[in-house]
Fold:
Amino acid sequence: MRSELFSAENLEKESPQAGMRLQNSKMLKIELNGEAMARVGSMVAYQGNVQFQALGSGGLGKFLKQKLTGEGVPLMRVTGQGDVFLAELAKDVHVIDLEPGDALSINGSSVLAFDSTLQYDIKMVGGAGMASSGLFNCVFSGYGRIAVTTKGTPVVLNVDAPTYVDPQAAVCWSANLQTGYHRAEQLGLGTLLGRRTGEAYTMSFAGHGFVVVQPSEEPPVMGSGQQQQEGGLLGGLLS
Structure:
């Protein structure tokens, strides 16, 4: 049997070391020997002795935080020995290594999988109160790998001047950056008459660091207390 389908670039990639790595630009492979965390519904194939466990709400603190952030990002614990392949809607996958002292803020809709050695918390973006729809993000720290997804090839902006990004296009950013919520569209007669730019609010970043921006906007998240609000940033992880 002959086909370009069976070319070397499409064959499963093997590694002598356990852990997560890219199978290709749109698929993550976890060579599992123990435990990892993954987005519910992201498994597309697996080999070996692997178990999947959907996680509940966990402690009361994170349960309340998850409720505040809207729909959240349901997680599953993946355990055992074998190979697990993860993907989400053919989005591009990127693997980031965190080391002690690193901290990364991530839009929850961009989280695909992460090592169970990492810690995370759900925090509100600075300057974004519930009155302005309450933007939330996930802050990861510790030692391990995390896989994030983007819709298309992203750009990594070096924040060395005031930077503004559409909330649905922001993928992740340095946790040490000062963030805020900025009205991009000026109110006026045109706005009142229904003429809108489609860019009512942006996230603002200041300090020294980076922000990763994808060339596509995720649909706004409408959770409790966020109905009819613009710019909801998905971020609640179930634990």
Q: What stands out?
A: The longest strand covers residues 27-39. The first helix runs from residue 60 to 68.
